[in-house]
Amino acid sequence: MRVVQKFGGTSVGNVDRIRKTADIVEASWKDGVQTAVVVSAMSGETNRLLGMANELSNRPQPRELDVLVSTGEQVSAALLSIELQNRDIPAYSYTGMQAGFRTDSQHSRARIRNVEAGKLLAHVEQGEVPILTGFQGVDEHGNITTLGRGGSDTSAVAIAIALKADGCDIYTDVDGVYSTDPRIAPSACKIDRISYEEMLEFASLGAKVLQSRSVELAMRYKMPIHLRSSFENIPGTIVTEEDETMERAEITGVAYNRDEAKITIRGIPDHPGIAARVFGPVAEAGINVDVIVQNISEEGHSDITFTVPRQDFQSALDIVRKSCEEMGGRKVSGDDTVAKVSIIGVGMRSHSGVAQKMFDTLAKEKINIEMITTSEIKITVVIDENQVDLAVRALHTAFDLDA
Ligand code: ASP
Ligand code: MG
Q1: Domain count for the chain
Q2: 324: closest CA among 271, 261, 267, 276?
Q3: Does the Cβ of 134 fall within 6 Å of ligand 1?
Q4: Mean of the pLDDT values across residues 288-311?
Q5: Domain span including residue 365
């Protein structure tokens, strides 16, 4: 048996937490499990480091920022290793560069190209415990790179794949994925098993428990992830392949995201190339467009409405106003008080009437649906942000998810 254990910031947040984390590693090692460990920076550390850089400069260079923030993980790896050695466990800490994480050169959002895991493999095969820094690697020119916020999850999955581990255990401060946010619906229940696809939908809606890229990577290589708490020794949520044999509920969970804004452009000429003309400049500005609705054109003109992350609202609005003028469109309007609510579940594939049930439920609560979009395993509506809690609770109940 071989596992990779990854510990997030709160699990290494102080010396006492590092001891608790060492208990978990020690137990696995004593069970004879070949164990490799990936750590994040102590909680708050990455932000603290970035804060200092931003005090000194309003345009710190990404290369220097990567050298800076990668130190956070190095501290936790060394401290955990010191604690394990103190217990006579043969532990060795390594930075991403030493551990063979080769990436491209996109500082602060680098992608892993390959992992040369020979050294780490030798350690685990000899019953030793390599402790490596998550979140970082090295590009072909020898520059330190980082993988984007939350990137330690992706490091953990990548090393699990490279070591051909049986699984990747991700320890965090929550005990699993819930059917919805328990702060909104106290009746939310823990999901024992969730498919990669469902997990990706949850993650893309801002459920920050796992970096989306780590789930994509795990899905591609069929690496099971066990997301669990380092504070309590109880089973968490297993993220794995869809279980074909199980009878499924209509939906698995309800997710939401308040970080949304919508923009409408009216009366633009309806001919080929218009969507490209509207969205091209928005994409060039690095703004992610999400839900898009275009109505049927009347007298050769049509309207397009779409959503963007709230923090990009103003810049997207400016860009679209300019395009509208150039295209001879009628007007642009926007609203940054909207939110998305989604129901998610692979069960949708085999149950009919799921969408209808969602719309009926929202209608009963007098919630106005402003936009709708669907995928095979998700139905999303855009509504007023003040009605999110109500919508989430009503849907959770309507689909029988209440514990
Ligand atoms: N320390 C990094 C961050 O705060 C990476 C991680 O924790 O996964 O984003
Ligand atoms: Mg994280």
Answers
A1: 2
A2: 267
A3: yes
A4: 90
A5: 254-398
